[in-house]
Amino acid sequence: MHDIIIRGGLVYDGSGAEPRHADIAIDGERITAVGELTKNALEEIDASGHIVTPGFVDIHTHFDGQVTWDPYLAPSSCHGVTTIVMGNCGVGFAPCKPEQRDWLIGLMEGVEDIPGTALHEGIQWDWETFPDSLDALERRALALDVPAPVP
Asked: Is-contact 135 127, C-beta < 8 A?
């Protein structure tokens, strides 16, 4: 028995192959089978008449501040995005010493048009170095995967 089966959707698997109607089994956090599945599941989702795709990857985001207060990184997660990349445009919030925070927020406000008030009120500064920021990111219970390029 599987945890979840999504049944009968039109599956675009991301490989470039033609879409096909198929069932998708999920066990834990992994897809474990795709095809015409005969086993049952604890939860079954009827995807007839719907398209089913892998999660999308957004390779250019500016969630560098929002990642500290919004575990769902809305609106991206609402659109099927499961992985985001931040630290784009050569700026991010790490490394950053406490005395540099206001300056960096001002930079992000000007360059990326992110409201400074939201950043001042939202960012939970619990790092100074880039490795510290990765540790802080790892401690957060995020709904999406968040790789970050080295600045």
From this structure: yes
